[in-house]
Design goal:
homodimer, Alkaline Phosphatase, subunit A, 2 domains
């Protein structure tokens, strides 16, 4: 029996409510001896920590720095090495483009060519506004190729998403990207007989786009990469018998939540707004994923102080969540984003779970901080075990075996 | 190489003695700030803990509450998701019925029917005494069906075990249980050609029993479920090159020990008796599994005080075990049974190992308690790794690779 078969077998439905709050990139590294979380004044989190079980979690496994995709799959209880999300799909999720089960999503770059030779793989990193103009123009010109519907979505700068909708599409084709300048436009090749149709459509698209843009140097061709279908992931309703909802502001996280079958709740953008959305929908679901983005954004910017401020803002709003009195509450990150590294890192996430049947932390673990969580009663484990732990604490797992 | 191949390859025979003491359901949850183990006065355990390596163990994995079957397979070093023990086999083990390699064990319910319709799936939960009378009567009447030997064993109330012994029996048949009242007696169906004989025998048994009991309303038919063969598990003598023995009072645990090839030692019922049995047989084996049941029983009853008393009783007898001076001694639980939950739980087990070559615990981990063990030098790991750790400490594993 594998892990998923086990969970499907032992999970049961009940009315108990679970809330998982993800402060993106929460974990940090010390500057002057204290991390962002340790620097922030967080009386509410610290009070809660005193009454919770604490620990640290590795997003994937020790030493592995994850992107948002695998990090969130782990948080939702799925093996991020089993389910890989194609780059095209992630890109589509990131800009909010819906992708159906039969569709293909492709990550596109606008590029520059001269006499069929690629001279810039990013077309001079054109402004996003220019991108939107071009996409708007192309949308009118390229609606269909053979029997396949073509949809185009602007990304930032030179990036866009191409979606193919039709019958018998396959991801079993090569990227159409020479990967360096000075080489000719590269066409996609089918890796199997069945994929020939897809390669043909992609190549016709490249030619058609290059023709349409022949007078708009430097944006006069494209590269197509990460050609992918929507991954087949059993929904949380099947694996964990939950009725789950997501509250997130950025399309990527809504997309990731949708991938595992969560309903996406409409929300305004501030942390306060997200909590309002939680309150409004509290009766309709038994699992809530709440995603708070700015901790990560400021970490990526290397802005220690502003990351501290976001944590303090969340702390000040925490009592509104506690008032709902959920049966099981988790507060953690998807991965660490230390300001001094300015990027995601491999350091484990501070983790807190509050429920009814819990043990006490050692008396040296009293705050919600990286150092305190390292001494917590839960020890150090992998994020993939968070959801099972929440299920157990909500009495949503029955005994395995007699 | 898988885990079992690794162990078979690196394990070696030597004379060193290992004792694994399982206080069933030992781990608990705090009431007034202290768990059962933390409330109990355990000077001997605490002395021992000071000199031992401490940790916590998850029976299966984080969040998963195990039954006794999978929990003990883990303790014996076997993957409880790889080896699943059919319900019929567990029931047979639980009442002490031996099951051979070719036999089938089936969990039976006495039930009530009227004109072929099931009206009570438990025949009014008859007293166990009545059950024994009926089984005794049936044993004389149904000894064989075709070429298959029939054996019957009383369980509690309406439960019994049916054992089929003969050639070409298969577990690939459906349960003969309509699962709700108001439906007709359901017969077993073969799921493959090879299983047709078994389905026929089971169905003839149902008819014969129903005929024999036609005048003994409300006990006038039966349901048959969990039809299972003995699982094929490599014995501990093969995997770990051990000569293992079990000292247990309850049939279930003797059965589980037998499943992995332990000799079952005759013993009287008190903890003191079990330790006497250990002493008497100490020269004849190099691995002893000692099972103490009452910690779990009182946990299941929600009787905090009596669970405390059993722990104290064990503590007072511990010096008798220590006098044997085993090379490696483990004291832990199979799973937690907190009195406030009144059932098995997912919380990890306090764990102690005493051997020759060990590191010191942090100075804050000095007692044998859930909180202290959470700070132990061994950290938190899965029960399946206990036996390998004992093997290592007894120098029964050679180096893997050069």
């Amino acid at each position: 029996m594998n892990r998923e078969e086990l969970f499907e077998r032992i999970s049961i439905k009940n009315q108990k409510k679970m809330i998982m709050i993800i402060l993106d990139g929460l974990g940090g590294l010390p500057i002057n001896g204290k991390t962002e979380l340790e620097t922030a004044k967080t009386p509410n989190l610290d009070n809660l920590a005193f009454d919770s079980e604490l620990g640290l979690t590795h997003p994937i496994s020790i030493g592995v720095t994850p992107g948002s995709g695998p990090a969130h799959l782990s948080l939702f209880g799925y093996d991020p090495l089993k389910y890989t999300i194609g780059r095209g799909i992630l890109e589509a999720l990131g800009i909010g483009a819906e992708v159906g089960a039969k569709d293909l999503a492709i990550r596109g770059n606008f590029a520059t060519q001269k006499n069929g030779i690629i001279t810039d793989r990013r077309a001079g990193r054109i402004p996003s506004e220019k991108n939107r103009e071009i996409i708007s123009y192309l949308k009118k010109r390229i609606k269909k190729i053979d029997d396949v519907k073509i949809s185009l979505f602007s990304g930032e700068e030179h990036r866009f998403v191409l979606r193919l909708s039709g019958e018998d599409l396959s991801e079993n084709v090569t990227d159409a990207d020479p990967e360096e300048i000075g080489k000719p436009i590269l066409y996609s090749k089918a890796k199997s007989k069945k994929a020939e149709k897809t390669a043909k459509i992609l190549n016709k698209f490249i030619d058609k786009l290059t023709e349409e843009l022949k007078d708009s140097y430097p944006v006069n061709t494209c590269l197509l990469r990460g050609i992918a279908k929507y991954p087949k992931i059993p929904p949380m309703s099947k694996l964990f018998k939950l009725k789950p909802a997501a509250i997130a502001v950025y399309p990527m996280y809504k997309g990731l939540a949708q991938l595992v079958g969560m309903d996406i709740l409409n929300t305004n953008r501030s942390i306060r707004d997200e909590i309002e959305t939680l309150k409004k929908n509290y009766n309709n679901y038994n699992f809530f994923f709440i995603h708070i983005k700015k901790t990560d954004s400021y970490g990526e910017d290397g802005n220690f102080e502003k990351k501290v401020k976001v944590i303090e803002e969340f702390d000040s709003l925490l009592p509104r969540i506690l008032k709902l009195n959920p049966d099981t509450l988790v507060i953690t990150g998807d991965h660490s984003t230390p300001s001094i590294i300015k990027s995601h890192s491999w350091h484990p996430n501070p983790f807190l779970i509050k429920a009814k049947y819990q043990r006490k932390n050692p008396e040296t673990a009293t705050k919600f901080s990286e150092t305190s969580c390292a001494k917590g009663v839960l020890g150090i484990f992998n994020s993939i075990d968070i959801l099972p732990l929440m299920m157990a604490n909500s009495i949503k797992f029955k005994k395995y075996g007699a």
